[in-house]
Design a protein that fits this description.
Helix content is 47%, strand content 15%. It has 214 residues and is an alpha/beta fold. The longest helix has 15 residues, at 165-179. The radius of gyration is 16 Å and the shape is globular. The chain starts with a strand and ends with a helix. The chain binds adenosine-5'-diphosphate (2 copies) and zinc ion. One adenosine-5'-diphosphate (ADP) binds at residues 9-10, 13-14, 31-32, 35, 52-53, 57-59, 64, 85-86, 88, 92, 162, 171.
Length: 214
């Protein structure tokens, strides 16, 4: 099963993608996580990506597409995968399509998690990310057992630099300009499914499982 998660920054793509990946035993591929791991490891890609991420801008397609096209051809992707945060532009979607066509494969579902902008700003201020394993929490909606400590690995939880309100506004406008057109793109391909992302995360998950036929 090959799934794409669409939605604004903070819509809950990562939260849902992790649950789906676990349930179906397929890899969760998050380009944001890949870039953050590169930043942490001090790679050249990380340094380049950081310049854009800090400003709330998208990392250029040239730095993003090959990375994903390579990743989906690895052994663990044979049974499927869930793409979280990719594609984010029409050229990225076209690059993915070209790669899939070559492989004789196709996307089964593009799930659009819908959350209005005003909810997003509130959510992002409360998001906390683990500095070590990348797990995400919310101070109100998904609080860790102990404040600022990761339940999964015990490392520290932080507010991402790009989750500060000024940057969130920029990311939202980038989303509307560059990423939202993908909803039309995948609607035309007949694979779009919409879920209300404003309800409780377990209820969002139940709605997605229904779409996936489980
Ligand atoms: P969110 O969880 O808010 O949706 P991500 O963790 O997916 O954010 O991405 C964080 C940042 O990484 C983005 O704001 C962008 O700068 C960069 N990024 C992630 N995925 C992509 C992509 N597919 N294309 C370009 N930039 C990306
Ligand atoms: P994205 O990957 O789309 O940027 P996340 O999955 O990281 O979004 O979620 C953004 C923030 O909102 C996190 O702090 C997360 O715990 C919280 N969150 C996710 N889904 C819900 C939900 N249905 N209701 C309330 N908060 C949520
Ligand atoms: Zn952790």
């Amino acid at each position: 099963m090959k799934i794409i998660m669409l939605g604004a920054p903070g819509a809950g793509k990562g939260t849902q993608a992790k649950m789906i990946a676990e349930k179906f035993g397929i890899p969760h591929i998050s380009t944001g996580d890949i870039f953050r791991a590169n930043i942490k490891n001090g790679t050249e890609l990380g340094a380049k990506a950081k310049e854009y991420m800090d400003q709330g801008l998208l990392v250029p397609d040239e730095l993003t597409c090959d990375l994903v096209v390579d990743r989906i051809q690895q052994e663990d992707c044979k049974k499927g995968y869930i793409l979280d945060g990719f594609p984010r532009t029409i050229p990225q979607a076209e690059a993915l399509d070209a790669a899939l066509t070559k492989l004789g494969e196709n996307i089964d579902f593009a799930i659009n998690v819908e959350v209005p902008d005003e909810n997003i700003v509130r959510r992002m201020g409360g998001r906390r990310a683990c500095v070590s394993c990348g797990a995400t929490y919310h101070v109100v909606y998904n609080a860790p057992a102990k404040e600022n400590v990761c339940d999964a690995c015990g490392a520290e939880l932080i507010l991402r630099d790009d989750d500060k309100p000024e940057t969130v506004q920029k990311r939202l406008s980038v989303y509307h300009e560059q990423t939202q057109p993908l909803i039309d793109y995948y609607t035309k391909k007949g694979v779009i499914a919409e879920v209300d992302g404003t309800i409780d995360m377990q209820d969002v998950f139940a709605a997605i499982c229904k779409i996936l036929g489980e």
